[in-house]
Structure formats: structure tokens, C-alpha cells
Backbone:
């Protein structure tokens, strides 16, 4: 990955790409929520931004959790190292817990937060892979991911009136998992773990199946209530 030098500061392309992707994703949810009540919309956007910033802080400080001994011997190394995948998972967990706490404590509609946050995540992921096509030789998997993300975001926009619905959330997860699973099948970097499928492929397949089951349950409940 190339870097850009600004005086003594060295910026990786990956960092710039992440900032562009997250910022573009935020613009998407600005449009996505424009039909909501002004007070609710502001609360959702502000809370999601706070969760993101805290998640970034947790990710940045995660070496203190996963590699505490090395950090104690060389505190300055915290400036150069992150927690990697484990740090990202810890940051995601922290962000989800923050949003969950706010929804429970302040009786906020969790489905609005979940649908909006998922749209932001998918948009960011799609833009990230779109940038990889031009800046990092992303290849066919990056093209496929960008297409899947665009299709899912369009789906969310077409059903924007159901932003309070858990059914929309389940369908979004289902189509995202199915699309990303299909894309992963052409990714030669995925190593087989079980039944010829890689770890990420098994996770996506599991998510798709569980979402499909939840979709069927919600549809049955809706049919019984009408």
C-alpha cells in the first residue's frame, strides 16, 4: 500500500481510503434518514457518530488488551501498532453496546438505529472496495462487493418507509450475506476451512440461513396478524 508524505507526516492510502469511505457512507445515511422527524434524525446520527469515534478509540488502544506486555515494555509502540482483526471486533462490540445502552436506557427505536447503522456500514464497505479497484488492484472480488453494496443500499432506499421495521433489517442482512457469499466464491485468496469453504464464507452462509429463517418467522407473524 502506497503512502503520502506531508512534511514529516506519513499517511497511508488505506487510512485516506477509510476516511473517504466512512465520510461517503455518512452522506448516504444523511439522505437515508431525511424523512424522519428532525429530533429523532439528529439523535440517531449523533449517537452513531459517537459510537464510531469510540469504536475507533477502542481499536486504536486495543493493543493494551491483546498485547499488554509488549506495550508495558515499550509504551511508544502504541503509536505504531493496532489490534488488527481482534481490535476491530472489540471496537465493533463496543460500538454496538453503546448504541444498545442508549436504546434501552432512553427508550429509543432500536430498529431505526440498526437499519441506519447497517446502511452506513454497507455503504462504507462498498465505497472502500470501489476505491480498492482504482488504488489497490482490488480485482473481481472488490468489483463484486461494490456492486452488492450498491444493490443493498438501493434496496434500503426503496423501502425507506420501513426503517422502523425489523423485517427490513433481516432482509438487508440476508441479501448482504447472500451477495457477499457469492462474491467470496470467486476470491482465490480464501483458504478452505470446511467442506471446501473458508471461514468468512461459512460465516456469511450461516448469516444468510439465519436471516432467511427470521424472515420466514416475521412473514408468518404478519400474515397471522392480518
Residues:
Amino acid at each position: 500500500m502506497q503512502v503520502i508524505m506531508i512534511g514529516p507526516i506519513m499517511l497511508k492510502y488505506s487510512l485516506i481510503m477509510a476516511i473517504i469511505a466512512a465520510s461517503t457512507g455518512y452522506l448516504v445515511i444523511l439522505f437515508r434518514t431525511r424523512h424522519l422527524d428532525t429530533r429523532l434524525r439528529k439523535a440517531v446520527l449523533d449517537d452513531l457518530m459517537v459510537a464510531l469515534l469510540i469504536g475507533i478509540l477502542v481499536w486504536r488502544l486495543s493493543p493494551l488488551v491483546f498485547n499488554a506486555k509488549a506495550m508495558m515494555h515499550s509504551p511508544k509502540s502504541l503509536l505504531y501498532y493496532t489490534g488488527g482483526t481482534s481490535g476491530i471486533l472489540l471496537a465493533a462490540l463496543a460500538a454496538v453496546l453503546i448504541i444498545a445502552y442508549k436504546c434501552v436506557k432512553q427508550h429509543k427505536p432500536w430498529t431505526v438505529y440498526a437499519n441506519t447503522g447497517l446502511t452506513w456500514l454497507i455503504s462504507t464497505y462498498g465505497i472502500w472496495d470501489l476505491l480498492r479497484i482504482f488504488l489497490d488492484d482490488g480485482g473481481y472480488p472488490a468489483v463484486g462487493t461494490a456492486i452488492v453494496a450498491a444493490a443493498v443500499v438501493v434496496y434500503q432506499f426503496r423501502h425507506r418507509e420501513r426503517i422502523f421495521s425489523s423485517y427490513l433489517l433481516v432482509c438487508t442482512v440476508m441479501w448482504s450475506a447472500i451477495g457477499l457469499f457469492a462474491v467470496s466464491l470467486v476470491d482465490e485468496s480464501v483458504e478452505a476451512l470446511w467442506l471446501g469453504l473458508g471461514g468468512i464464507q461459512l460465516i456469511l452462509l450461516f448469516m444468510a440461513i439465519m436471516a432467511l429463517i427470521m424472515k420466514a418467522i416475521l412473514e408468518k407473524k404478519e400474515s397471522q396478524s392480518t
Notes: The chain has a mean pLDDT of 86. Residues 170 and 214 are 7 Å apart (CA to CA). The beta strands are 3-6, 9-12.
